[in-house]
């Protein structure tokens, strides 16, 4: 009896070894975005190939828009070009529900601890209890500000500021002669650019995209307040040409010392405090995204994540790669090579319990608090039928969001008034939702 | 000279080119036609036959459609105007006796070799950026307020970028045309005391007419499908959404392949109307 | 030069032409200059012109990050390959159109040109599906095929207009002298056609090299040319003008150099029948 069991066990163990060996070879083609953390990962490829000598990694690093265009076409046609793709919390629920992604519940490396992933992040990558993507880095948004300029203005930034305070501070810090603008915000049109910011901001003003019957809500007073406040801030205290500024442009402005405050992704914290790139590295403070006393803050939740398309023919090797890139070992590897402040943030609980990390990254606590303050299932003050903080997790959203974003961007550029922008946003959204069958 | 034999030989020689182009045109066109009557939205898992012409009606009736036609016309027209006028001027200039003519010509044709993506990226970031761009520095140097090119003058900015790329092409063709002009005719006119502008108006310009129509035809073909320059600079915002870009937004951003395919078919029809119109003119010119 | 030109006039034209030439060339010069700066110098205010610490570190970083030579090699294969195939198909077609014109020759030519008007984005899904179905996605064959097809109309037209300029009388004279068809083609027509073919080849290489829609959407790794290489340097996090410039210089330099060296050949045939 026992011998039989033992024999069986032995056989299955052999099998396991067999499949593992088979798994650890082949070429894994990885599509990723050209953000700093991903480029760093590409530079550390040697560590992975040392562990899995039979797996070859092919990197396709692309700018975000081109990447999305490529990956979406590939997955929608079942092209099977990529074994690992880099996507966000917007795509994962939709693609996962379409069975276009491989479940990561099984087959990951043993030390890849899924229960360690921050619950807020894991929630956004899970569909019906199945995890479809592994977070590479997670982010929320928060206020980054210049402590020196704040002091000069005689103000003190609270940990949890209100929008009114932000306006007051922006006014006090603006000095156009010296090319210092009180506040830098996203203005570039796109669902992942200005609409990410404005949707999150709208949440704190009591605005929402749709009511519970999927009726567009841009004719609401809350949206009018949001947009007017934003336009007022940006035209009076923002940099010139703000309607073309996205994350990158604002990062550059802030690093050059031209912004007093910047409300954007928490992941920017490590860039603006990095003395080699930033001229203001030692005078940056952090605060939670502002609110209006309505119970919601204007911060979002996003995670660049690695997933495997169902059309991949090398799933096991892809899982080995994802286990490596999103595991705790990778964090330690980056820490030892580049310092703790540069590890990809916002994905694992253990990172925020690590004393070394907390000591090296002054923004760590604020990042964690911001991530925890975002609630994708219940983002707005009023109830909504959708999930997603700064997006609406339906397939039509990318198209609608970008078109609406273009209206708001045009309003910022002074080509139309806030009322006109909202009216045409309402019209576009209603049309598109009708066409989509809501 | 054209015997029956040489005719059939000629047909045979032409066959491969005609055949591959026919396949290249028909296969995607038929598939696009088929998609255009489907409710094909891959993100929804929808692939339903058949919704009739509803994709066409919704594409044609959306407010974006007419705007995009207008933008396309302004953009193509603007670029053509700049490149033709600039090309004539440059060709006249390069035809003058100058020292270092070869080098100047090399400098002038260089933009034609630059990838559209690269030129859009460089113009956007290094020249037109209102804070760090070189044009902003130039404006500041003269004490003027820097312009936010891509949000205040978006259409003009794109026209400028694309014109920069195509000006060399126009210049080259027009220059060859000028150089082929019989110089004796010009000299005779000069002897008669005809002033410079009238020589230009009555002798040089008519001589270049044919070259100008060729430039217009070829550039129009390429300009109708401008994509990279818009994608990189404004992403279709601020009224720079051409018909091509609108189709792109429908197919890729909205992931509505049915609707986008209908848009594609409409674009093909419109482009062919333009083509027929243009070719009538050029065809006549080529026969002459 | 038959026309008498005073030195003053020549000097005036020279100055004017050089100013215009330099303005047109300036953006390219600026890319090249910026590629040798550090990131900090690249965004210095006011801009720095020539006197900075020249560095080649950007080129090193770019090469480290993405294997430039693989992209370059692919660009060469795709542009040369598609040009070769295109010429092979186009020369006979243009030849017969020029020397044995039928009633519908002109219509066929115009129809060919009109296929270029098919908006690429509209047929993206069909082409991707066909590529997947043929299992040729990201292969040289597919890309060479597509690039050949999109440029074929231009090649045919260019060659046609060039061949048409070849005087038929010469042929007939040769025939009188008892020349065979073979020697006719080999010794009379080919030498006359070479400049036109050469400039067509050059123009087509340029067009194929710079094509950025199909090459981006139909490749991943194996056949990815320089257009894909550039896509990994546009808008990264932060402004990396110097690296962007280095990558841009690397992407355009080969074709720029080719273009400059062969500009005489390019210009000779680039007439599209515009000259008569």
From TrEMBL, chain A:
<dbReference type="InterPro" id="IPR006059">
    <property type="entry name" value="SBP"/>
</dbReference>
<dbReference type="InterPro" id="IPR050490">
    <property type="entry name" value="Bact_solute-bd_prot1"/>
</dbReference>
<keyword id="KW-0732">Signal</keyword>
<dbReference type="Pfam" id="PF01547">
    <property type="entry name" value="SBP_bac_1"/>
</dbReference>
<comment type="similarity">
    <text>Belongs to the bacterial solute-binding protein 1 family.</text>
</comment>
<protein>
    <submittedName>
        <fullName>Sorbitol-binding protein/mannitol-binding protein</fullName>
    </submittedName>
</protein>
<dbReference type="GO" id="GO:0042597">
    <property type="term" value="C:periplasmic space"/>
</dbReference>
<feature type="signal peptide">
    <location>
        <begin position="1"/>
        <end position="23"/>
    </location>
</feature>
TrEMBL record, chain B:
<keyword id="KW-0812">Transmembrane</keyword>
<keyword id="KW-0472">Membrane</keyword>
<protein>
    <submittedName>
        <fullName>Sorbitol ABC transporter membrane protein/mannitol ABC transporter membrane protein</fullName>
    </submittedName>
</protein>
<keyword id="KW-1133">Transmembrane helix</keyword>
<feature type="transmembrane region" description="Helical">
    <location>
        <begin position="69"/>
        <end position="94"/>
    </location>
</feature>
<feature type="transmembrane region" description="Helical">
    <location>
        <begin position="258"/>
        <end position="282"/>
    </location>
</feature>
<feature type="domain" description="ABC transmembrane type-1">
    <location>
        <begin position="69"/>
        <end position="278"/>
    </location>
</feature>
<comment type="similarity">
    <text>Belongs to the binding-protein-dependent transport system permease family.</text>
</comment>
<feature type="transmembrane region" description="Helical">
    <location>
        <begin position="106"/>
        <end position="123"/>
    </location>
</feature>
<dbReference type="GO" id="GO:0055085">
    <property type="term" value="P:transmembrane transport"/>
</dbReference>
<keyword id="KW-0813">Transport</keyword>
<dbReference type="InterPro" id="IPR051393">
    <property type="entry name" value="ABC_transporter_permease"/>
</dbReference>
<dbReference type="GO" id="GO:0005886">
    <property type="term" value="C:plasma membrane"/>
</dbReference>
<keyword id="KW-1003">Cell membrane</keyword>
<feature type="transmembrane region" description="Helical">
    <location>
        <begin position="155"/>
        <end position="178"/>
    </location>
</feature>
From TrEMBL, chain C:
<dbReference type="InterPro" id="IPR050901">
    <property type="entry name" value="BP-dep_ABC_trans_perm"/>
</dbReference>
<keyword id="KW-0813">Transport</keyword>
<keyword id="KW-0472">Membrane</keyword>
<feature type="transmembrane region" description="Helical">
    <location>
        <begin position="140"/>
        <end position="163"/>
    </location>
</feature>
<feature type="transmembrane region" description="Helical">
    <location>
        <begin position="240"/>
        <end position="261"/>
    </location>
</feature>
<keyword id="KW-1003">Cell membrane</keyword>
<comment type="similarity">
    <text>Belongs to the binding-protein-dependent transport system permease family.</text>
</comment>
<keyword id="KW-0812">Transmembrane</keyword>
<dbReference type="GO" id="GO:0005886">
    <property type="term" value="C:plasma membrane"/>
</dbReference>
<feature type="transmembrane region" description="Helical">
    <location>
        <begin position="184"/>
        <end position="209"/>
    </location>
</feature>
<keyword id="KW-1133">Transmembrane helix</keyword>
<feature type="transmembrane region" description="Helical">
    <location>
        <begin position="71"/>
        <end position="96"/>
    </location>
</feature>
<dbReference type="GO" id="GO:0055085">
    <property type="term" value="P:transmembrane transport"/>
</dbReference>
<feature type="transmembrane region" description="Helical">
    <location>
        <begin position="108"/>
        <end position="134"/>
    </location>
</feature>
<dbReference type="Pfam" id="PF00528">
    <property type="entry name" value="BPD_transp_1"/>
</dbReference>
């Amino acid at each position: 009896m026992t011998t039989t069991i033992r024999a069986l066990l032995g056989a299955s163990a052999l099998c396991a070894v067999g499949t593992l060996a088979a798994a650890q070879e082949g070429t894994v083609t990885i599509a990723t975005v050209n953000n700093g953390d991903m480029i760093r990962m590409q530079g550390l490829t040697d560590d992975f190939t040392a562990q899995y000598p039979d797996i070859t990694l092919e990197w396709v690093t692309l700018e975000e828009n081109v990447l999305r265009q490529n990956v979406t076409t590939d997955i929608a046609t079942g092209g099977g070009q990529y074994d690992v793709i880099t996507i966000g919390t917007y795509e994962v629920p939709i693609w996962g529900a379409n069975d276009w992604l491989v479940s990561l519940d099984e087959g990951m490396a043993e030390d890849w601890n899924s229960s360690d992933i921050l619950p807020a992040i894991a929630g956004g990558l899970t569909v019906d209890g199945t995890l479809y993507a592994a977070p590479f880095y997670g982010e929320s948004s928060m206020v980054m500000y210049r402590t020196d300029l704040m002091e000069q203005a005689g103000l003190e930034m609270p940990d949890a500021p209100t929008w009114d305070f932000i306006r007051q501070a922006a006014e006090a810090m603006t000095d156009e002669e010296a090319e210092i603008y009180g506040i830098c915000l996203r203005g570039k049109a796109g669902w992942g650019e200005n609409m990410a910011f404005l949707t999150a901001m709208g949440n704190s003003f009591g605005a929402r995209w749709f009511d519970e019957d999927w009726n567009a809500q841009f004719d609401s007073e809350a949206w009018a307040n949001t947009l007017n406040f934003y336009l007022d801030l940006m035209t009076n205290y923002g940099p010139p040409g703000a309607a073309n500024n996205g994350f990158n442009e604002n990062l550059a402005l802030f690093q050059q010392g031209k912004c007093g405050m910047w409300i954007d992704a928490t992941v920017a914290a490590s860039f603006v405090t990095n003395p080699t790139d930033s001229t203001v590295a030692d005078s940056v403070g952090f605060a939670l995204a502002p609110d209006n006393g309505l119970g919601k803050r204007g911060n979002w939740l996003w995670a660049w994540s690695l997933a495997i398309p169902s059309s991949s023919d090398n799933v096991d090797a892809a899982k080995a790669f994802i286990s490596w890139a999103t595991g705790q070992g990778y964090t330690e590897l980056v820490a030892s090579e580049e310092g703790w402040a540069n590890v990809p943030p916002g994905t694992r609980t253990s990172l925020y319990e690590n004393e070394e990390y907390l000591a090296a990254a002054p923004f760590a606590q604020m990042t964690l608090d911001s991530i925890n303050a975002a609630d994708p299932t219940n983002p707005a003050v009023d109830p909504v039928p959708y999930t997603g903080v700064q997006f609406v997790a339906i397939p039509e959203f990318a198209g609608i969001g970008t078109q609406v974003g273009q209206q708001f961007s045009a309003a910022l550029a002074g080509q139309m008034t806030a009322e006109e922008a909202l009216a045409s946003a309402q019209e576009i959204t209603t049309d598109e939702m009708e066409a989509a069958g809501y | 000279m054209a015997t029956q034999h040489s005719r059939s030989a000629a047909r045979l020689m032409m066959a491969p080119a005609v055949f591959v182009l026919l396949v290249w045109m028909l296969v995607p066109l038929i598939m696009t036609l088929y998609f255009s009557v489907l409710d094909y939205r891959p993100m929804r898992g929808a692939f339903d036959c058949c919704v009739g012409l509803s994709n066409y009606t919704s594409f044609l009736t959306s407010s974006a459609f007419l705007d995009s036609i207008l933008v396309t016309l302004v953009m193509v027209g603007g670029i053509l105007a700049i490149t033709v006028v600039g090309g004539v001027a440059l060709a006249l200039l390069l035809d003058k006796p100058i020292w270092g003519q070869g080098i100047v010509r090399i400098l002038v044709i260089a933009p034609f070799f630059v990838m559209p993506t690269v030129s859009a990226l460089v113009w956007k970031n290094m020249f037109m950026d209102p804070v760090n761009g070189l044009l902003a520095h130039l404006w500041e140097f003269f004490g003027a307020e820097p312009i936010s090119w891509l949000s205040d003058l978006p259409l003009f900015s794109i026209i400028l970028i694309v014109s920069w790329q195509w000006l060399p092409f126009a210049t080259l063709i027009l220059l060859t045309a000028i150089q082929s002009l019989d110089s004796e005719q010009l000299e005779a006119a000069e002897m008669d005391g005809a002033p410079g502008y009238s020589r230009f108006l009555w002798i040089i310009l008519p001589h270049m007419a044919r070259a100008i129509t060729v430039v217009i035809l070829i550039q129009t073909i390429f300009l109708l499908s401008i994509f990279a320059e818009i994608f990189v600079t404004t992403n279709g915002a601020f009224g720079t959404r051409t018909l091509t870009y609108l189709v792109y937004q429908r197919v890729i951003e909205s992931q509505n392949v049915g609707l986008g395919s209908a848009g594609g078919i409409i674009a093909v029809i419109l482009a062919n109307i333009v083509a027929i119109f243009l070719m009538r003119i050029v065809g006549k010119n080529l026969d002459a | 030069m038959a026309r008498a030109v005073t030195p003053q006039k020549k000097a005036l034209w020279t100055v004017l032409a050089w100013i215009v030439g330099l303005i047109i060339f300036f953006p390219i010069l600026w890319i090249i200059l910026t590629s040798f700066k550090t990131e900090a110098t690249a965004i210095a205010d006011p801009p720095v012109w020539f006197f900075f610490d020249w560095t080649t570190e950007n080129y090193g970083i770019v090469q480290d990050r993405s294997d430039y030579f693989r992209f370059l090699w692919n660009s060469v294969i795709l542009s040369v390959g598609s040009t070769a195939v295109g010429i092979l198909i186009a020369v006979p077609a243009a030849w017969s159109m020029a020397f044995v014109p039928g009633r519908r020759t002109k219509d066929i030519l115009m129809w060919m040109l009109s296929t270029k008007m098919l908006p690429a984005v509209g047929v993206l899904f069909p082409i991707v599906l066909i590529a997947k179905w043929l299992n040729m996605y990201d292969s040289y064959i597919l890309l060479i095929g597509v690039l050949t097809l999109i440029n074929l109309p231009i090649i045919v037209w260019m060659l046609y207009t060039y061949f048409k300029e070849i005087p038929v009388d010469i042929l007939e004279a040769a025939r009188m002298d008892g020349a065979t068809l073979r020697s006719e083609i080999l010794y009379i027509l080919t030498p006359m056609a070479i400049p036109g073919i050469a400039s067509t080849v050059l123009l087509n290489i340029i067009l194929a090299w710079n094509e950025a829609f199909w090459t981006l959407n139909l490749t991943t790794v194996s056949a990815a040319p320089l257009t894909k290489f550039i896509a990994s340097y546009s808008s990264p996090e932060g402004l990396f003008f110097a690296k962007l410039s280095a990558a841009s210089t690397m992407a355009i330099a080969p074709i720029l150099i080719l273009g400059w060296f062969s500009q005489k050949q390019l210009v000779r045939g680039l007439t599209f029948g515009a000259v008569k």
